[in-house]
């Protein structure tokens, strides 16, 4: 009977070691899954903020149609903004008149205050958030929102004529660095 015990005493130890190895691999896999979950959750949060910011911009233009860009007037509306990514790395400049403390009877002054505050919200809500706005209210305002995504290390696709609608929604203006995500919208107030 003592010979049988000696033959089986090592088998239990090997079984325990194999079980610990399998359990360790499962824990490593769960940790990897958790990191991907957090990564996609951050992307989802940025897209949720993006939707709120685009809606906010559209409402600001709708509320002040007297200063909205119209066809044939050129780029004179404060609701338009054309600075590139590099030109927006500093904090947005404040408007000349603070419509939160003073009455802004002039539509242009209100539009300047709207854009300064909205661009500041974009900057605070998205990592290095930047915008470009072109167009007019008759044909649609083309709104591009850009932000730094630390989980995205590729060079973003550049916008070009004739792109598919899916590609046109995510393309970036030229000279945007690696790791920047873009979202394009057309708003008709």
Largest sheet: 3 strands, antiparallel
Level of helix content? 40-55%
Q: Which runs of at least 5 residues are low in confidence (pLDDT < 50)? A: none
Q: Total number of β-strand segments? A: 3
Structural class: alpha+beta
Cα radius of gyration in angstroms: 27 Å
Shape category: elongated
Tell me the strand order in the biggest sheet: 1-2-3
Count of distinct structural domains? 1
Number of helices: 3
- Cα distance, first to last residue? 91 Å
User: What's the overall average pLDDT, rounded?
Assistant: 86
The run of helices and strands is HHEEHE
Please report which band the strand proportion falls in: under 5%, 5-15%, 15-25%, 25-35%, 35-45% or over 45%.
5-15%
Can you give a write-up of this model?
The chain is an alpha+beta fold and 189 residues long. The protein has one domain (2-187). Helices cover 46% and strands 13% of the residues. It is built from 3 helices and 3 strands. The chain has a 3-stranded antiparallel beta sheet. α1 (2-63) runs antiparallel to α2.
């Amino acid at each position: 009977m003592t010979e049988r015990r000696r033959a089986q005493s090592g088998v239990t130890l090997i079984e325990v070691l194999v079980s610990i190895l399998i359990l360790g691999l499962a824990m490593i896999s769960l940790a990897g899954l958790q990191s991907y979950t957090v990564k996609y959750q951050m992307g989802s949060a940025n897209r949720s903020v993006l939707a709120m910011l685009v809606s906010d911009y559209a409402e600001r233009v709708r509320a002040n149609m007297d200063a909205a860009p119209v066809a044939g007037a050129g780029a004179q509306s404060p609701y338009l903004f054309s600075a590139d990514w590099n030109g927006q790395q500093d904090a947005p400049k404040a408007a000349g008149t603070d419509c939160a403390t003073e009455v802004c009877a002039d539509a242009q002054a209100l539009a300047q205050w709207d854009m300064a505050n909205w661009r500041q919200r974009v900057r605070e809500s998205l990592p290095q958030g930047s915008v470009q706005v072109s167009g007019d209210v008759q044909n649609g305002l083309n709104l591009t929102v850009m932000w730094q995504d630390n989980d995205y290390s590729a060079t973003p696709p550049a916008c070009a004529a004739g792109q598919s609608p899916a590609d046109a929604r995510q393309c970036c203006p030229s000279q945007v660095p690696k790791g920047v995500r873009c979202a394009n919208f057309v708003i008709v107030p």
